[in-house]
Design goal:
By secondary structure, the chain is α+β, with helices and mostly antiparallel strands. It has one domain (2-100): Arc Repressor Mutant, subunit A. The protein contains 6 helices and 3 strands; from the N terminus they run H-H-E-H-H-E-E-H-H. The chain has helices at 2-8, 12-21, 28-35, 39-51, 72-85, 89-100, and strands at 26-27, 55-60, 63-68. It has a 3-stranded antiparallel sheet with strand order 1-3-2. Helix 2 packs across helix 4. The chain is globular and about 30 Å long. The protein starts with a helix and ends in a 7-residue tail after the last helix. 24% of the residues are buried. The model has no long low-confidence stretch (mean pLDDT 93).
Amino acid sequence: MLVTICKALSDETRLRIINILFRRTFCVCELQEILEMSEPRVSRHLGILKDAGLVNCEKHGKWYYYSIANNKENEYLFNYLKIMFSKNDIYKLDIEKSNNVNLACKI
């Protein structure tokens, strides 16, 4: 499992998604807007994070919502990532965008 987690975190897009999901639950279309990426690309990255046990996915109607997998195993890792994200401008910009995203889909 450790190798899977490390591989999942070895991509900047996936790190950006984790950072955004620390704020709240988002649907794929909202993440698309924030990241300025296509739906298939965002979904592929979310699938990798889900398989690594780092995010949760729930379906409500036709929308899929993703959130951080808050569990004891991820606690130390996520605390470390939050510190690192706070020191990098691209992650700060993603948070600003996430605050202004159009809520295209609602639970």
